[in-house]
Amino acid sequence: MRNKIRAAVIGIGLTAVSVLATGGSASSHGYTDSPISRQKLCANGTVTGCGAIQYEPQSVEGPKGFPAGGPADGLICAGGNSQFAELDDPRGGNWPATKVNAGQSYTFNWRFTASHATTDFRYYITRNGWNPGQKLTRASLEPQPFLTVPYHGQRPPSSLSHAGTLPSGKSGKHLILAVWTIADTGNAFYACSDVSF
């Protein structure tokens, strides 16, 4: 019996070491709350029927390298994680949206539950004519981020804000995709925020 318990403890320890060594998600990490992200709307109960993401809004982690790499089209808001598929559901274009103005100065805010060495933060926005009733694809987004914040391998504090300017020439409903790229793993964190100009 002792050998079985000892073997189980060793097995659990090796699994934990393996997850950490490969950059796997052993704990949770971060999300945007300004503009409020879909995962935060689920966590605070504003949106219901969200599944597992309501308990861990900080866990939307997927492959880095967006847009050349990263999650597949239609799976971007969930970071390619099937357990968070509710984030990719457009809900008929009815996600609550933060009211903003084209060309305005805006402060983007992240909340972190675990700090990682960071390459940068990038913010993308949907093209004019985007259909908010469809899943997010690369073709839905402007090809270049409208804001990039280099972070040079530093680790962010528990809360971090970036000042930027929202693109001009936007009206109606749009989606902002925030990507937090990790420097020392193969992953990034993704957060989709619905906005209304």
Summed up:
By secondary structure, the protein is α+β, with helices and mostly antiparallel strands. It is built from two helices and nine strands, in the order H-E-H-E-E-E-E-E-E-E-E.
Describe this structure in words.
The termini are far apart. This protein is 13% helix and 29% strand. Strands 2, 3, 5, 6, 8 and 9 form a 6-stranded mixed sheet that branches. A 3-stranded antiparallel sheet has the order 1-4-7, with no helix packed on it. It contains 2 helices and 9 strands; from the N terminus they run αβαββββββββ. By secondary structure, it is of the alpha+beta class. 36% of the residues are buried. It has one domain (27-196): Coagulation Factor XIII, Chain A, domain 1 (Distorted Sandwich).
Helix content: 10-25%
CATH arch. level architecture = Distorted Sandwich
Give the DSSP E fraction (strand runs of 2 or more residues): 25-35%
Order of helices and strands: HEHEEEEEEEE
Please give the CATH class. Mainly Beta
Domain count: the total is 1
Structure annotation, total helices: 2
**C-alpha Rg, in Å?**
18 Å
CATH topology: Coagulation Factor XIII, Chain A, domain 1
Q: Give the name of the CATH superfamily.
A: chitin-binding protein cbp21
Mean pLDDT across residues: 89
Question: Low-confidence parts, pLDDT < 50 over ≥5 residues?
Answer: 2-28
Q: Report the major sheet.
A: 6 strands, mixed
What is the CA-CA span between the terminal residues? Answer: 65 Å
Structural class: alpha+beta
Shape, principal axes of CA atoms:
globular
Compute the number of strand runs: 9
